[in-house]
Amino acid sequence: MGAKRKKFIKNSIVHVILAVLAAIWVFPILWVVLTSFRAEKGSYVSTFFPKAFTLDNYIRLFTDTTILNFPKMFMNTLIIAIFSCIIAAFYTLAVSYCLSRLRFKMRKPYMNVAMILGLFPGFMSMIAVYFILKAVGLTEGNLIRVALILCYSGGAGLGFQIAKGFLDTIPTAIDEAALLDGCTRWQIFSKITMPLSKPIIIYTVLTAFMSPWLDFIFARVICRANADQYTIAIGLWRMLEKEYIDSWYTSFAAGAVLVSIPIAILFLCMQKYYVDGVSGAVKG
Questions:
Q1: What contacts 262, CB < 8 A, 6 or more positions away?
Q2: For the segment 130-142, what is each residue's pLDDT rounded down to a tens digit?
Q3: Helices (H), ranges, 155-184
Q4: pLDDT-derived band of residue 273, with 50, 70 and 90 as boundaries?
Q5: Which of 48, 199, 213, 216 is deepest in the core (most CB within 10 A)?
Q6: Is the pLDDT of residue 146 over 80?
């Protein structure tokens, strides 16, 4: 009985701590959601729960385009995120496969250099990247989208570490058997290795989508004053500027809620494949 009581007390303490941490994590999300439905304007209120609820904050985002064109910014971000996600995911998985399966000269030095470069934040190079893009004429008009796609996907191959670690767990005997049967490396990569790597594919796709969807620094530097090319992050930031914060603060909260919807949908759609991939990997 003494051992059971100690176990019960220990489990109770753990569950209380987890409950407190969960409440701390959920509290800001709940506050943003409640603020998005708040009828009272302004950035400062005296109560946590709104006195009155309304949908006008969401409606204004799609109807009031005189100052901030939210639908346009939403579409810009969605287009950039989708194309960046596809290209970046392919780059990451391809580089990971090559470093996991192939043996070539300078392989280890490349991995060491990539790891060192990964220690530096990407925005350290944003000024150099901007002037390179400007030199080739990608900083004006609709080409800004192309420039942002290149920025988000061009260096994706350097983030190969996690995907490579997963691919290392797949037996190389499968590749050797496929080579004996006459498969090319591309066939092995696309028809054998990738179907066995669903969990890491889902992880790579999610991270590749979230990076351009939530990025502010590169988008702000490259878009500059081109308001028709703004992304959601820039639009939400402008809503908090001094001249807009009083009238757009609750709409900012509504925009923050809408930003999370595509990521949630993407995760929910891919969760089934993620679970199936994990269970398949365990069975294998």
A1: 78, 81, 213
A2: 888 888 888 888 8
A3: 161-167, 172-180
A4: low
A5: 213
A6: yes
**CB atoms closer than 10 angstroms to residue 123:** 13
| 272-280: long-range pairs with CB below 8 Å, 24+ | 273/198, 273/202, 274/198, 274/199, 274/202, 274/203, 276/198, 277/197, 277/198, 277/199, 277/201, 277/202, 278/198, 278/199, 280/196, 280/198
Residue-wise pLDDT for 74-95, tens only, equals: 999 999 999 999 999 999 999 9
State the pLDDT at residue 155: 81
Query: Residues 269, 270, 271, 273: is their CA dihedral positive or negative?
Result: positive
User: According to the model, what pLDDT value does residue 1 have?
Assistant: 57
Q: Tell me: pLDDT of 275 over 70.
A: no
Is residue 226 within 8 Å of 280, Cβ to Cβ?
no
* Token pair listed for 22: 């969960």
DSSP letter string over 183-201?
--HHHHIIIIITTT-HHHH
In the numeric block, which tokens belong to residue 47?
């109560």
- Write out the two tokens for 37: 């439905």
Residue 153 · residue 91 · CB < 8 Å? yes
Q: Which residue reads 């004006």 in tokens?
A: 140
Q: What is the mean pLDDT of the chain?
A: 85
Closest Cα to residue 202, out of 163, 240, 170, 160? 163
- Percentage of the chain beyond pLDDT 70 is 95
The one-letter amino acid code at 77 reads T
- The token pair at 113 is 């250099």
